[in-house]
Give the backbone structure.
Amino acid sequence: MQALGKSNDIDKLDSVLKEIVLEYINDMIFIMKVEEGPSFRYVYINESARRATEITKEDMGRLLEEVLTVELAARLKEKYIQLVENEEKIIFRDKVCLPGGQQVVNESILTPIKNDSGIIEYVVSITRDVTPVMREKKRLTNAKNRYRSIIEHNLDAIFILDAKGVIKESNIASGQLTGYQKDQLVDKTIFELFHASVKDDLQKTLDDALTGRPVTLDQCLMKTSDQKEKVTSVKAVPIIVKETFDGCYIIVKDNTISYKQNEMIHYMALHDQLTGLWNRKALDEHLPLFVKSMEDTDQELSVLYLDLDRFKFVNDTLGLKGGDRFLKKITDRLVMLTDEECLLYRQGGDEFVYLLKNSSLEDTKKKAGEVLSLFHQSFTIDGQEFYISPSIGVSMYPADGYDANSLIQKAAQALFQVKEKGRAHYRFYQTHMESSFPNYIIMESHLRKAIEKEELFIHYQPQMNLTTGDVDSFEALIRWNNRKFGFVSPGQFIPLAEETGLIHGIGEWVLEQVCIQLKNWRMKGYKNVRIAINISPKQFLQEQLVETIGGYLYKYGIPATCLEIEITEGAMQDTQQTLRVLKELKELGVYISVDDFGTGYSSLNYLKRFPIDILKIDQSFVREIESNQKDSAITTTIIHLAHSLGLEVIAEGVEKEGQVSFLKEANCQKAQGYYFSKPKHPDELEHYVLM
Ligand code: C2E
Ligand code: MG
Ligand code: MG
């Protein structure tokens, strides 16, 4: 009894447990009774199944076809029949549309339950929604494919290495880069693909990567299967699996082309195109480095700043192309003195710089002497022989300066002295040179902007008619008031303007201002005024000079006879060109005067040949006209000469009454000087002179 009772309890417990398990398990459970036909009748479905489907408890006892849609019922029935016929467990997947419309994939295990006679009485279906699992699986596969594709089709070569640097896998590009087949690469070490010189760097890169730090190595020389060299950059990225390092990726980028281009650009940036020498930029880069290394090793360094004397004349004679050929020939000679300790740079134009490393005073003198003697022999250009000499300024580290800038500057100051003191030799920098070295470079940059900044203006100096006491002509004299240099005399800035070519712009500006002034005065009724302008020799050689003058006269409606052109004797070389320009000026109708007469060209021949109107006796003769017999004789002779040639004479620099008397006595028509008036602003002249 007791035993029976116990068995009853166990049965009860068993059924309760089963119910709990069946009822509350996450999987859906369907139990179908197999009937004749066969047909399948619902006898049990658990809680999960009820939740996932529209089947309810009330459906128990109904046939499959009575509960499900026709289509689903048919599909399931087919499986059930298969089970009954084969009597073997079936696992299958089925896409089902849930009541909410959501598509899910179910995985079902169908198990037969037989009665004692071995006939299948029930079918149990345990069904699970495998949609999330499948989704995750798909996601993983996609990710894996994507990642494979990133590696496989990457344009950079990618190698997968183990911790020892042995290649385990590689992508398509790695074959293209190295020239090896994919399978040839497997089991090679990465070091075999690179130049021996980068082995240590590469090893360090790997070591770093294996401790979890991605590293990049630039300019890594790779060796291809056919022993060609390629410049690459290498990136090592650790592979971390389950928090331990399991080798690394090596990504290799081929930089050969850009490296070569960079090399080329770098070369071009630092070399002079014409001569192939290092250029000024290279000098700027190298000099500070050399100074530093001399400092570290306690050695001396010299800068030889070399400028070719009168190279402009060569250019004028040979043209720019011929000048270039000449420079190349000169370079060939200069290069002969270079070696590891002696470097040559083209500083620009006809300027070169030698840097002498580790060079004592004696060494430097010797080298400078050698440079000079390179020029003892002539150069032959286009079958013509040329001699040219260099001037050399020398500065030394540390005696003359501790930095690149001051060394160059001091060598340039020494060079300036060489030029002043007769060229064709060398000089070492000395402290006294500083004061005599005007900062022409700064002055030039200011002069360039003088017109636009309205720093230039013109003063007019009256020329007194000694017979009548009237003033009907003036000399225009340019003035420059600069904010840095203050008033700069034309004696200083006109040569600079000539040197730099700025004279053309300035000269034209003067011409226009004078025409404007003439127009202004003419409108006020001073119709007979004539103004003389100074034309520098450089301007005189300008092709369009006459055209430009004619243009401004026309523009402002000024008769040519109101303008006088002053040309110095120096500019009037006895050539056909001078004669042609003077004739053209004469045809235009302007007056032509010879400025500073007596100080320049010694031949008086041209006075007869050239169409000149006026001689201006230089102030150096007038100054001592009363006391110096020679000067008074010269002055009287010039006046006579002028008259015999039918020319007018103007004496310059007249400061004293005695000079005026002398000039009157000698029949000099006009005089100009402080005695009468300093050069003045035109408004002032209107009130006191023109009235
Ligand atoms: P220059 O043409 O011989 O001009 C005469 C110079 O003598 C002027 O100097 C004038 O101011 C100065 N002077 C006039 N009377 C006396 C005097 O009684 N005593 C003394 N000691 N000097 C006197 P400035 O203005 O300094 O000009 C110097 C030179 O600059 C001029 O010599 C001329 O060659 C040049 N210059 C001036 N203006 C121009 C210009 O517009 N263009 C060009 N190309 N050169 C100019
Ligand atoms: Mg003058
Ligand atoms: Mg003069």
Observations:
- The longest strand covers residues 229-241.
- The mean pLDDT is 89.
- The pocket of magnesium ion (ligand 2) is lined by residues 475, 534, 566, 595 (CB under 6 Å).
- The radius of gyration is 52 Å.
